[in-house]
Specification:
Strand content of chain A: 15-25%
Mean pLDDT of chain A: 97
Oligomer: homotetramer
Distance between the termini of chain A: 39 Å
Shape of chain A: globular
CATH superfamily of the largest domain in chain A: Dihydrodipicolinate Reductase, domain 2
Strand order of the largest sheet of chain A: 11-10-6-9-8-7-14
Radius of gyration of chain A: 20 Å
Chain lengths: ~325, ~325, ~325, ~325
């Protein structure tokens, strides 16, 4: 399955390389970027064509497109790719506007193409093992879920200003993880937050440290802790508690060596960020996407899965604004 | 320092034995229980006098009394002991009624005796290490705190009916832990809960599975997960996240042996309940109590420390009733 | 079952206290020590009689004696106690002389009393879980065993000079553990060692850092690492490798708190020495001893179990002297 | 730096792919294999030329050759590559014959080319952290070293028959690790072993379960446990004990999720074999090789480092044959 990558910033360039060399069942048809030099650099390194326009990429002989450009461009590209009959991989979030998302999903539905939204964490072996334990009943009836999700360092203020805010930019991954792990929709949101990392984030109208409670349709309560800055590395943990036990995906470490002295034990750091932690999940995501497209099966992360976390995120913003729980 | 124990049910009998044989600097003056046979059994086993009445115990040559009787009897005994000039150790909660608590604290203040409220978890080496790391600035500025606290099995319904509800009976320990670890008072409470363990608990007007958010004066948000039933053992964890790192007290295991086969690794169970987990903390608590009384220093858990969690617990009940955050 | 303790140095005083207060099914009949003040101190603290002579202790109404005096006195006391018909607990080693051991065992056999040799590590929950996994076939056919056993600090040189050397004083515990875990006798010994901790140990004719290979009757090879000084605490680990897996008893830690910062993780120290690590095993040992005596079952650590490690230790000394494997 | 790969069996094909796509600073000049189809398959997949002969590969414009063919062909290729002035990466072992090794090293010395022997484990982040802790004095003066090294499953008997035996084929990696971690040459070897996995291995004149003691020039004793079959996965651990502490590289796990129920905890499996565990070490090795060649610095694993483990392995065979320690 040939994939054209649209947008080769940090995340798009990573996808291009994984498609070209690491994932089975996919190959790289070429790359496009609004910044010509970016596209050229990646194209030369990976020895693939560089498309002059997004339309040229979509109109190429690629079987699928990977939409990795800036968020506001996503839906137009989704629509164009759907109309061209291409399978679509789109990075999260689909959009910051719910009606835009709906326009995109309508085009996808009308054309019957596959749309997969890039919630890569579902494909992480550790988090997937948590979901599997829940789904298989290994911990009995699920009661409570905890997600710890903290980035090592905040993005630039310019990025934050256009990000839609922490709930739509960062917590959105955790909203997806909550839906994925519980297998149940969210019906109520209570969120609280403040600025502890950088006053400039607050001046930009955003929060950097938040705690969110989600009540699911099945009664399970999920608690999410987020922070834009984590000195000890990229904190990525999910813990599901049920009537028969508890299952937790713990943080990784950069190596497995432990030193013990009279001061106690000392171990390795937690990997710095998503490139250090999640590459295998991105590879696995590509392989599952390719497999779904080939087989005609529904994608493992659907358009509806892309829409739901946006709804939750908008409710979280409202909850903070009113300091009350918001019913969905 | 000689201690008379008032009330030798499960927890009182444990205290009597720790005072008699395990803790340094204290000895057992005798025991009293409203159930005569209970007192006799413990008295014979530990070879100490059995008092016929609480007054006799308080009026004995004991330097201190340990109030381990049922909650409604606490304040009268506190007052009587205070008036007799005895140092007082009182099990939690002081009372389920705030005005009763205040009556007790007034007597303590008027007489100048030492009152120590039995929040033993502060003396657990693991939780104490979390507090120490926070206080010492090892994790920088504290931002978020997480407490997981789950009992292995619910108490009898008859107990639950008189317990004051999960927030005053069980979460009260976690409210104390939140105040202790953050070093900051609670200013707002949001609580949510339901019944997942036993419908009879709901019929008794109580919850068995709750999640509580506390906002502290210093801005830190604490999240508490409670459940009355935990198949994997007594879940007792505290995790503090700050600007420079994270510090977590993890559950203990009943032994340190790991087996690895083609199925993966298998390790020991988490200790069943407080007798298996917290004996060393109870011993340490007695030693610190004795040391405070001897030196005339303030107790490490004061009467105010006994009152504050009750206020939080009452707010939590109100928050559940109204599904809104409650300001203190 | 009433137990008189003979010898209340550090280890005997510990046994006296465990018998008096911690172990079920035993009580303390009294204590004796060649140093009168030592006996008096322990007797007063535990409120039990102090015997004037060992004979008085043996001749008392105690059901059993605990021989915790210096090694050269063990066998005479074993013989006297056997002849008095008392059940016997004897600290390791029984003796440094094989013919002395045999004299003691003959007296025990002739009188039919119970003799239990104090290899407490068998009763440690973690090591016992390793043995259980081996015995239950959880790791299939056992192939290799590893024992890491290192003391925090060397004893005084005066002690070392009378200890019989590291193999009879320290490794003897590991020889027992090898026999216990494998369930198979040792048929060949190869030992190598040197002095790395303190030259005075070498001047006293001893080694302080040794590695020993044991070949068992069933073909399993055990490797033992010993050192008289371990900066990180009391190293006590056993690891059994078999055809279906591996099972390891890991070191304990003094608490369960982990701190993570940009430098990595930091955890608690390993407990300092046997009092910090092995108290529960000593308690369990007393309970199993009492149970064996009461039921008339053979003791869980027999006289033959006391003799075998001495034979292995003598062979280890010879192996070092000749730098060749020694066949038993 | 362009590298031609000679021999693209399992390990050579892996190197070709790492050179082509994963390691920085190297590119794949082409491949050769005595089995034409093997070379063609790899060449097509990686889109590089296929050389008809080893000479053609060596004579190409490649800057370096990677010798990954069968062991008996190594030295001829080393000599040819050296005479062609190419930098050489050679898989272990250089040869099973010491005089052949010396012939190869002589050619390398005469021509001044770089020769790097493929002991990849030195480049594993966990093992490297052990070495770093030793070299930096973090554990004080090194006293004892333990290496646990067990393969998941034995190779085919046909392979074993030509392997030179377990010491030269498998333990050779551990001999290198012992020299690397201690930084000290081996002066004496004692080895013992037997057949526990497959009688056919014994019939082929080999052992499958061995324990080896190495005495180093600096007095440190290394113990190595090997087995050709490990049900729990690829066992790869190194533990260094010194006067100030201990440092251990523990096994990895395939994910970081832990499940706790009333039966205890359950975690993930240990990765199956070297492809699952050591890919990052192979990548790092290529990058360090490239860096050494470019800078003219000596390689991090020299020809002498390739020779020494062979000498130790031959001594180990002799030690087993005579059941005595062998002095080097």
């Amino acid at each position: 399955m040939k994939v054209a990558v649209l947008g080769v910033g940090r995340i798009g360039a990573m996808h291009a390389e994984l498609i070209a060399h690491r994932a089975d069942g996919v190959s790289l048809a070429g790359v496009y970027d609004v910044v010509e030099g970016a596209a050229t650099a990646v194209g030369e390194r990976l020895e693939v064509p560089v498309f002059d326009t997004a339309d040229a990429a979509i109109g190429s002989d690629a079987d699928a497109v990977a939409i990795c450009s800036s968020t506001p461009t996503h839906i137009d590209l989704v629509v164009a790719a759907a109309e061209a009959g291409k399978a679509i991989f789109c990075e999260k979030p689909l959009s910051l506007e719910l009606d835009e998302v709906d326009r995109g999903l309508a085009a996808v539905e009308a054309t019957g193409v596959t749309l997969h939204v890039g919630f890569n964490r579902r494909f992480d072996a550790s988090h997937a093992a948590v979901r599997a334990a829940v789904a298989d009943g290994d911990i009995g009836q699920l009661r409570q879920l905890r997600i710890s999700s903290r980035d090592p360092a905040p993005p630039p203020i310019a990025y934050i200003e256009q990000s839609g805010g922490i709930f739509l930019d960062m917590t959105i991954h955790d909203f997806d993880m909550a839906r994925f792990t519980t297998g149940s929709e969210v019906v109520e949101v209570y969120a609280t937050g403040r600025v502890t990392v950088d006053p400039a984030i607050g001046e930009a109208g955003d929060l950097d440290t938040v705690t969110v409670l989600l009540t699911h349709e099945n009664g399970v309560v999920t608690t999410i802790d987020n922070c834009r800055q984590s000195a000890f590395g990229y904190d990525q943990r999910v813990e599901a508690f049920g009537s028969a036990g508890i299952v937790s995906s713990e943080n990784h470490t950069s190596h497995s060596t432990i030193k013990r002295t009279e001061s106690g034990s000392a171990g390795a750091v937690v990997p710095y960020f998503f490139l250090e932690r999640y590459i295998p999940s991105y590879i696995s995501q590509w392989e599952q996407f390719a497999s779904a497209v080939r087989s005609g099966n529904p994608p493992s992360v659907s358009g509806a899965d892309g829409r739901a976390p946006l709804v939750i995120g908008l409710a979280a913003k409202q909850s903070v604004a009113t300091n009350t729980p918001v019913r969905l």
